[in-house]
Amino acid sequence: MYPAYVVAWLVSVAILVTSGRGVGVVDLIPLTLLQSWVPTESVYFAANAVFWSLSCEAFFYLVFPYLYRWMSQWKVRKLLIVGALLVSLVLSVSVAVSLTGTTEFGIWVVGFFPPTRLCEFVLGMILALLIRREASFAVPLWVGSFVALAGYAAANVVDDPYSRVIVTLVPFCLLIWSAAQADLNQRPSVLRAKPLVTLGIWSYSFYLIHTQAMTGAFEAMDRIGINTQELSDWWLFAAVAASFICAVAAAAALHYFVEAPLEKRLRGRRRSRSDG
């Protein structure tokens, strides 16, 4: 994870320098993966706005072994109760922030503070454990997909802080549950198509590099005389599609030349140490 992240950070810094926006000390903080612990937008969005989530994920990976050792002993009933309590906790935090005013601090608590976002991670662990317990709560994939799309649409119309997490939390859980069931039962699904599986493999690299690649594509268009601010709707759509293709290509390169080989090397070192 970290090598690809560092490369994406270097690209972001290079874009900041070449664009004339400059780089400050705050842009070094993402290298520590601690940026989301600071309730200031200029810090948790430093270098590149998408990097904030890696700070949360590093925290999740740190606590995962301890959580799993504890949670793996739970029965289905306890897993369901804790899952419901976690959803209620996220809703309560959203309501509390809404009632006290959607300040920068409140938005940070709901959307970026690692312990708050840990609720979603633990819910994911609960889903995985329920699947392993063979919990019999069948949800067709089309239902999970429809509910998830509805939640995504709702997130675009409701106000902060509800749009951050709570309106998509349960719908996305249903989608994950239904997709996992379909996969385990070997049901035919478009999600299992080889191109989509490949894109899924590239998805981490895509997340890291997509803003830089798309920004670079638009800047390149401007340099060759294409004023993207004045394009018609169809031409603007074509420009966005072209920048998206550039982002996918950049993600593939980051995956094959950085993420995959370095991950293989690191895993190889771990095996050799364990064998020794």
Automatic annotation (TrEMBL):
It comes from Mycetocola manganoxydans. GO terms for cellular component: membrane. It comes from the Bacteria. GO terms for molecular function: acyltransferase activity, transferring groups other than amino-acyl groups. Keywords: Acyltransferase, Membrane, Transferase, Transmembrane, Transmembrane helix. Residues 4-249 form the Acyltransferase domain. InterPro entries: Acyl_transf_3_dom, Acyltransferase_3. This is Acyltransferase. One of its GO terms (biological process) is polysaccharide biosynthetic process. The chain crosses the membrane at residues 46-67, 79-99, 105-130, 137-155, 161-184, 196-214, 234-258.
